[in-house]
Structure formats: structure tokens, C-alpha cells
Design a protein that fits this description.
Blueprint: H1 3-34, E1 37-40, H2 46-57, E2 86-89, E3 102-105, E4 111-114, E5 122-125
Parallel strand pairs: 1-5
Antiparallel strand pairs: 2-3, 3-4, 4-5
Length: about 130
């Protein structure tokens, strides 16, 4: 067997060794997305309901960063292409900055609420 044949077998063997861990990673992301808790609009804090209403009507938004793409670097939300999710600030009473509360939306009505700056999310049920 020549070098090309050996290289092909080596590549195939390497791919087969990686397959179980790749499958485990894809299942763990699917499990994480399925395990996201939900919250009704009525259960949201009043400031989050106000932000959600602004999102629905397309603004105007009080913060310049509202509407920017959300990267989903935490991999808690379902995996989507870059630019799918956008984030919006939920005012926090007494906070001197934007605070930790956000609403993150994909294609409406897919929106999520976080009160701990992306450490956890709850899907908003209409």
C-alpha cells in the first residue's frame, strides 16, 4: 500500500475515533436547549414586559446596544447561525448601568429572558 493509501486509512481511522465525542457534544447541546425553563409574559417583571413590547413594535429602544446581535457564546440557547439572536436591555431599578437583565430574541415569537447576564435563560411563553 502506498503513502496515499496509508494516509486515507489513517484519516478514516482518526474520523472514526472522533465520532463518539462529536455525537456526545451534539446531543449535549440538544439536551441543554430542551431543558430551558419557560416563563409566561405575565410572570415577567414589569420592566421586562415593557422591553418585550418595545421589541414587538420595533422600538424605539432606550439603550444604544439594544438590538445588537447576541453571540450565544454560552451555548445555552438553541444553536443558530450568527446574527439570528438579538439582545435587548431590561431596565433594573436602582442599577447605574444596563444591569444584568436582558431579553434575547430570535425569529418572533422566540424570545428568552435572563436576569443573571446570560448564565441562565427562560423561554418566554405568550
Amino acid at each position: 500500500m502506498g503513502r496515499v493509501g496509508q494516509a486515507r486509512w489513517g484519516l478514516l481511522f482518526g474520523l472514526l475515533l472522533c465520532l463518539p465525542s462529536a455525537l456526545a457534544r451534539s446531543h449535549s447541546h440538544a439536551h441543554d436547549a430542551a431543558s430551558i425553563q419557560t416563563v409566561t409574559v405575565a410572570e415577567l417583571p414589569p420592566q421586562a414586559r415593557e422591553t418585550l413590547q418595545l421589541v414587538r413594535q420595533g422600538g424605539p429602544f432606550p439603550y444604544p446596544r439594544d438590538g445588537v446581535a447576541f453571540g450565544n457564546y454560552e451555548h445555552i440557547l438553541p444553536r443558530q447561525p450568527r446574527g439570528y439572536y438579538h439582545e435587548y436591555t431590561v431596565k433594573t431599578p436602582g442599577a447605574h448601568d444596563r444591569g444584568a437583565r436582558r431579553i434575547v430574541c430570535g425569529v418572533a415569537p422566540e424570545c428568552y429572558y435572563t436576569n443573571d447576564h446570560y448564565r441562565s435563560f427562560r423561554r418566554i411563553r405568550e
